[in-house]
Every structure is written in structure tokens, then in C-alpha cells.
Amino acid sequence: MDQQNLILHPDAHWVKTDNDRVQLRQPDGTHITFDQHATDINNALTVLRSPSENNVISVDINIMTQLKELLNSKGLLVNENYSSTSQFQRLMDLHGTPAAKKASESLPTTISFLGKGKLASLARKSLNNAGIQITEEGTDTSLLIAISDQDDYEFFREANTMAVKNNHPILFFRWAQRRFVIGPFVIPKQTACLECAYKRELGSSLFPDELKAYRTDNVTNMPNYEGGFVLDELASALITRHVMTILEGNFDLAGPSSLVRINPVTLEVKYAPILRLPRCNVCGNSENKPQRVIRGQFLS
Q1: Cβ-count burial of 34 within 10 angstroms (0-12 exposed, 13-18 middle, 19+ buried)?
Q2: Whole-angstrom distance between the N-terminal and C-terminal Cα of the chain?
Q3: Which domain of life is it from (predicted)?
Q4: How far apart are CA 108 and CA 143, in angstroms?
Q5: Cα of 13 vs its chain's centroid, Å
Q6: What's the CATH architecture for 98-278?
């Protein structure tokens, strides 16, 4: 690798514990301990942190060469432009599972909104600030975001049906029962959809009649998201975080086929996995299910 314009990873740091030892903390939390040449290694790391600012520091060439080889093998030498990458982006790079990351050509590249209200306005502003492109008309490469200031069952149900039918990935976000609810993130033909979640919730409910009544109730009777400084900042961070993980292909972090409920006061987070229903009338195979054959009974 060309080692020009390379610097120490901005999320790595080190401490000189005494005159003989230096401990280098890697971004993933593990560390490397050097128990010889502590002063020379400390100087070399200082130069690698900011080469242009520390070019007057005396460094042993042999130690610098060996240190660069070690750091490069650990992925701790990065291009100097990487330091301008947002810290959250760098954290995603660390925590995303490579096997779960999708190929870039299959990922959405823009965002399109379904729904209006305070949460939609907050999300638009936050995503714009993050440099994410928003289109008014969804394209083949758009991620749809269905968003509402209340748990509008019919609105979300229609959005889910439309997205699955048109093979558009879609993410749901709303304020419901004094909590932010994110999900599911639906990938048509691959993951459970919102209708699967509704049907499974209804099937496991101890009071299905009440749940049905709640879903069909007039939305004007439901509490609206009113916002405020703390709630608005939290809502913006949550939706932007989720969208960034999807656009980067870190689907394991985006949590397909799951509902996430966040209590803004206690910061309690609950994850509810959703299994895909084989006979779901939106994403399942109910349209192509085999026809039942009625065979005549022959009497002997």
C-alpha cells in the first residue's frame, strides 16, 4: 500500500503508561501493548496522528517503518481525508457486519416521503443536514419513508401495500402510545411487511376486539406528536441514524423485520422481531396459492 498521505485512525488513541510501555487502544476496544522503545513509539504515533503539524518531532526511521507495517495490518492507517468523515459514519464502519452489508448497486440512493406533519418536517430537515438527497417523486432507487404524527393505521397500511406492490423498500416512523416507533424496514419479497406485524399482533392479543376497534378508530381521537426541544432532537437523531444505516447497506443495523419502540423519558428501547406470514395478503403467496382439488369419491 502507498503509505503517503496516511494517518493514524482518528478513533485510535494511546497512553504511555510508564517509561517502558505504550498501550495503543484500537477503535474496536482492543489494545496493543508495546513494552520496548516507548518514547520512540510515542513520538511515531504523535507524528502519524498529525504528520503536517508534528514534522519537527524526531522519529527513529526503523521503528516508524515497523510501526506502519503493524498498523497497516490492523487497518489502523487510513487516508488523511478519512478524518473528515463524520464520527457516526466511522462508528458504523466499525460495527456493521461485513456479511450483512448489501452490495452498493442494490441500495437505495435517495429518500422520498409519504406523510406530513411535524415529524415529517423534522426528518426532512435532519436528512438534508446530513447531506442525504430527498426527491418529491419516488424513483426506482428511492427509500420510501412513511411517517405520521400519530398511529394512523389506514395510512400506514395503504403505504405498505403500495410499496410492496411496486417493489419499493419502505421504512415506517411514527409517534404512538407516548413512544417513537421505528419500523419495520420492509424489503419487498425478502422481509416481513407491516401487514405481517399487524396480523401477528392481532393473533397474539388477549383483547383482539379492542385492538380492532383501536385500529379503526378515527385518527382525530388519537394523541398527536407535539414535540419540543428534547423530543424534536431525539426524533431527528433516530430517523437520521436509521436512514443512514440503510443507505450504507448496513441492514443488520437497520433491523429489517422488526419494530423498535423508544421511550423518550426512560430511554428504554424494545425490539419486537416480526416473522413473515406465508399467507400474508400483501407480501405472502396468497395470490398464487394452489387451488384446492376436490376429488370424487368412488363407491365400490
Answers
A1: buried
A2: 84
A3: Bacteria
A4: 6
A5: 26
A6: 3-Layer(aba) Sandwich (3.40)
In 50-193, which residue ranges form alpha helices assigned H by DSSP?
61-73, 87-95, 118-129, 153-165
User: CB-based burial of residue 298 (10 Å sphere; 0-12 exposed, 13-18 middle, 19+ buried)?
Assistant: exposed
Any idea which residue has 422481509 for its cell?
191
> In angstroms, rounded to a whole number, what is the distance separating the alpha carbons of residues 47 and 184?
47
Nearest to 74 by CA among 30, 37, 104: 30
Main-chain phi, psi angles of 259, to 5 degrees? -105, 135
Distance between CA 29 and CA 11 in Å, rounded? 10
- DSSP H helices, 96-228, are 118-129, 153-165, 194-204, 208-216
- Per residue in 246-288, pLDDT (tens digit) is 998 888 888 888 999 999 999 999 999 999 988 889 988 655 5
Give the domain ranges of the chain: 6-84, 98-278
Neighbours of 89 (CB within 10 A): 12
Phi, psi of 212 (to 5 degrees): -60, -45
Among 150, 160, 158, smallest CA distance to 218 is for 150
C-alpha 150: how far from chain center = 22
pLDDT at 290 over 80: no
Sorting pLDDT into bands at 50, 70 and 90, what band is 298?
very low
Phi then psi dihedrals of residue 110, to 5 deg: -130, 170
**Residue with more model confidence, 179 or 212:** 179
Q: Check the CA dihedral 148-153-155-160 and report its sign.
A: positive
